Amino acid sequence: MELRFKVLAEGARLPTRANDGDAGLDLHAAESARLEAGGGRAGVGTGLAVEIPPGHAGLVLPRSGLAARHGIALVNAPGLIDSGYRGELRVLLLNTDPAEPFEIEPGDRIAQLLLVPFAAAEPVAAGELSDSPRGAAGFGSSGS
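The chain above was modelled as a monomer; its predicted structure follows.
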């Protein structure tokens, strides 16, 4: 399957896979940004637009290395890209490190894009739902 990208900014890089067989495509920054310590946020452009195939969605996910080494997270993880969206892919980054600012430079890998199929279900009001072993048990109900 091909995934079509339109380059919107000079120097923008097509997404890459670190290893054959990796599910996620690494998204690269097309611009510089500084994330201040203790909650600094920035929307970082990739300089790319994508054509997500019908019946699929794109999920923008954090990079585990950035999170583990620098405390960099996504504000809206996962970010959702619908198949009809054709604007620039921008990644909303958050610096959770309480002491160290973080610098982003063009070309840096800042997030991952995962293409997933989905079922387009129609919401229907129901007076009752079928029983399940779990029932209405919520947070913490499955043990520690």
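The chain has one helix and eleven strands.
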